[in-house]
Structures are given as C-alpha cells and as structure tokens.
Amino acid sequence: MKGFIVTVDGPAGSGKSTIAKLIAKKYDLTYLDTGAMYRMIALYVLKHGVGLEDKKAIADMLEKADLDIDGDRFYLDGEDVTEMIRTPEVNRIVSPVAAIKEVRKKLVDMQREISKGKRTILDGRDIGTAVFPDADVKIFLVASPEVRALRRLKEYEQKGVKTTYEEVLESIKERDYIDSTRKESPLVKADDAHEVDSSKMTIDKVLDKISEYIEEKIGE
After folding, report:
1. pLDDT digit string (tens) for 144-180?
2. Does residue 220 form part of some domain?
3. Residue 150's CATH number
4. Are 87 and 42 in contact (CB under 8 A)?
C-alpha cells in the first residue's frame, strides 16, 4: 500500500478525528490532523491581535509562523498549543481563517508534502476534493447538528471549559454555513466519496463501515 491515501471529510463534530485515529492504528497509517493545522493559524491570529478582515496582515504572518507536529502534539513557535487550539475562542474564528486563500495554500502545500509517498489518513473539510482529489479511499462523515453539539459539549466539559449546549449548537451551525459557502474549497462531498452518517451509530459501527471501504480498495 505504498502511497496509500485515505481522506475523511465532514462538518465540525462529526467524529472525523476520532475515527481517523482508529483507522490509522488499525491499518498502520500515518494520521494527519489537518483541522489542527488551521487551528494553529487561528490561534496565531488571536495571539497577535490581527483582525480577520485584514487578510494581507494574516498572509504576511504566515511567513513567520512556525508550525510543528509531533505525534498528537502541536507546536506553534516552539510552544505546545495542543490544548489551546481546542478552545471556544479558536472555534469561533477557525472557519473564517481557513477560508483565506493564502492560509489554505500554505497548509495544503504542507499537507501534501508531509503525506508524499506515505500511507496516510487525513481528516478535514476539503481533503478529498481539493488536497487529494485522487485519494485511494474517500469518506464523507456526517451527523446531525444536534448530535454534534452534544459531542462537542461533552469534550468541553471533560476539559473544564464552561459553555452551554445552546452556544455550542449555534457555533456548529455557524461553522457549517461558513464552511459550506466559502469561496475557497467549500465543504462538499466528493462525487466518489462514501457517505457515512454517524448520528445513530456507535464508534465501532462507524469503524466497521469505513473498514469495509478500505479493505475493498486494498483487495482490488
């Protein structure tokens, strides 16, 4: 399976990262959390107090930002920001930041370079449509906004982040709108992607379903 690429796209909170990590472990694939890469840029914007409307300033900052990934830890300018990139503050601006053309170009180039010649699984919004349109297996993982909001709220509670279900649901719906209507690589299902709705499925059932698609491809 040299150069084998699996993509998992879908909206926020659909379980992409959880499933991608399990698939990576099951099939000995390198896992690349592309969403975390955009979150690092969003955090960088917050730290430097740059307005989202100032796209030129954000583009200029990209040349200075030092992003590094070590396993499941994320580093920005040498600082471990693994927890910081998962806060509600970052959640609120990650979609607008990800919609900026210069940001997408820089990170897409990084994602392709990191995955070159490897057996990799990547999750995000446009991995199967824009980053790796020729991927071996494409998954489009979805779930209802209400289910996704409950999952995200549980994550926050486990981390001690105070928020409400209503606030999380509103944030999820807002991100869905921004992601699906943005000009640069909007969130859409690739024509050749397998859609999996995890709303009423256990993690094991989702894993089994996606495994079927992967093993079908491996067996060709």
Report:
1. 999 999 999 998 999 898 999 999 999 999 989 988 9
2. no
3. 3.40.50.300
4. no
